[in-house]
Amino acid sequence: MLERLDAVNWHELEHAYGKADDVPDLLRNLASSNAQTRQNALSELYSNIYHQGTVFEATVYAVPFLLELSQTETVQDRDLILIYLAHLARGHSYLEVHQDALLYAEELHNSEFLTQIQQEMTWVRNVKLAVCNDPNIYLNLLGHSEPQLRAAAPYTLASCQPCSSEIVARLKQCLSQESDPQVKASLIFSLGVLEPPESASLQLFVSFLNSEDDLVQLAAAMTLARLAKDKTPPKAVAILLGTIQNSVSIRALSNRFPWFNCDVVSDAINFLSYLGAAGSFAIPALITALETVESYSVLSIVRSLLYLAFHGQRSAATTQTITAEQRSVLEAIASCDNVWQFNTNMANILKAFGLPEQRNQLQLFLING
To answer: Would you list the DSSP string of 293-321?
Structure first.
């Protein structure tokens, strides 16, 4: 295993912190029998060759070894390696993402700067190709005895869109036979990503709204919200709202579940935004949740409340032009102490909607217009 690791001249490759000399040992440590060693190695790899979602020259060379580790039965935590590979396939170029920032305003027409962006975009493409070149690597894990691997494989397969027709057929077959809630939920999410909205199996997802498993219900509801948008079945919306109001059972099931970005409540809230104007009936429940959710979910509620109330548009409103519903949302935000634990984050959210950025400014706006 990893016999060719030293054949790569890692010193000539770079990652977020410079020379990639540390990468081979980190890859070896992923195969350690010590859980803390494996955890530390993966954390370092998230930091250096996948820094804040950015991939690098060294990332391309690391992928074949990560694939080898993901297929080796003696390696533990292979589900986490599969999830990491999926993240790499969805990675981006730092300069391409930040090229509109004022930091690079003067460089935008510089030929060397543009050449560097093109180089980074080549790394992005090559990493995705390396991860997704052979979907059979992940398809073969759909029948593995370990549920965690069966749940992680669909997450990685969702990055392999060019082979989607073959993958979708296998995912549906597995879904009809699977009994584990986490695996079923992951299969549903992956199908929702790989099938275009116009041809997606919406009725299949609707059938899972009646599942006995809360996580499977939620996966179906989220998938329907993303695909059907304002035509999302009422039961799916009710499941999303129910998750926001009582997430205890879901949190227990969602341990190491790859599809939740940070917190299941925040994700449920974010999926409500897909409903557009049709989701405005959820506003009262979200206002109530402002006072009850944990602190790391409250920003997602604020973002969704503003999105639903202002229909996703930046506002040029005054107190004379905002609707009663918009006023109720802004008053709830201004009066909720829970919201203002993260003043910088709140300022950015309010700014995005063209609203006063500080609590006292928002309160004066509501009083004076």
So the answer is: S-HHHHHHHHHHHHHHHTTT------TTT
298 versus 150: the higher-pLDDT residue is 150
With 50 as the cut, is the pLDDT of residue 198 above it? yes
- Give the pLDDT of residue 286: 87
Residue 124 has pLDDT above 80, yes or no: yes
Which ranges of the chain would DSSP assign to H, the alpha helix?
23-29, 35-48, 57-70, 78-89, 94-98, 111-132, 136-139, 147-157, 164-177, 181-194, 202-207, 214-228, 234-245, 248-253, 264-272, 283-289, 295-309, 324-335, 343-352, 359-368
**Cα–Cα distance between 186 and 210 in angstroms, integer?**
17
Distance of CA 106 to the CA centre of its chain: 32
Q: Which of 183, 255, 165, 176 is nearest to 219 (CA)?
A: 183
The CA-atom distances, in angstroms, between 361 and each of 36, 121, 346 are 47, 42, 12
- H or E segment at 54? strand 54-55
State the pTM of this model.
Answer: 0.85
The pLDDT value recorded for residue 10 is 97
Looking at the DSSP assignment, which residues form a beta bridge with residue 50?
55
Is pLDDT of 56 > 50?
yes
d(CA 208, CA 236): 10
CA neighbor of 69 nearest in space, from 4, 16, 163: 4
Helix 264-272 to helix 234-245 angle (10° resolution) is: 140
- Structure token pair of residue 317: 């409103």
Residue 167 identity (one-letter amino acid): I
Decide if pLDDT at 164 tops 60.
yes
Question: Do the Cβ atoms of 57 and 123 come closer than 8 Å?
Answer: yes
Q: Over the chain, what is the mean pLDDT?
A: 88
| In the block, residue with structure tokens 């992951």 | 186
Could you give the CA distance from residue 129 to residue 321 in angstroms, rounded to a whole number?
A: 51
Those residues with Cβ within 8 angstroms of residue 355's Cβ, 6 or more apart along the chain or in another chain: 306, 315, 317, 330, 362, 365
Provide CB contacts within 8 A for 336, sequence distance 6+.
290, 291, 298
Determine the Cα–Cα distance for residues 228 and 199; give it in Å rounded to an integer: 11
